[in-house]
Amino acid sequence: MKKHIVVANLPEFDAASYLDSEASIAAYLTDILQANDAALLAAALGDIARARGMTEIAKSAGITREALYKALRPDSAPRFDTISRVCAALGVRLVAQPIHS
């Protein structure tokens, strides 16, 4: 007898629970940056901030917790200044690499 899985009954995936090391965070951001999608980057930074503690990251970035949630929601288009401040608070740096080697 086959067992059917109902997708709607599956729990929602949360990347934050897997972002428990500098290496996993760097790999995650590298993959996200390759998509070249600002909203996806904002959401990924939100995942990392939740993994590290949203209140602490907001304080380190110099913005309110509510503003941080708003800036890093999946459908947002945050300013570069916000991305830069959040990256600094997370202790990560965005790096440019040539497309063609």
UniProtKB/TrEMBL annotation:
It comes from the Bacteria. Pfam families: dnstrm_HI1420. One of its GO terms (molecular function) is DNA binding. This is Putative addiction module antidote protein. It comes from Solimicrobium silvestre.
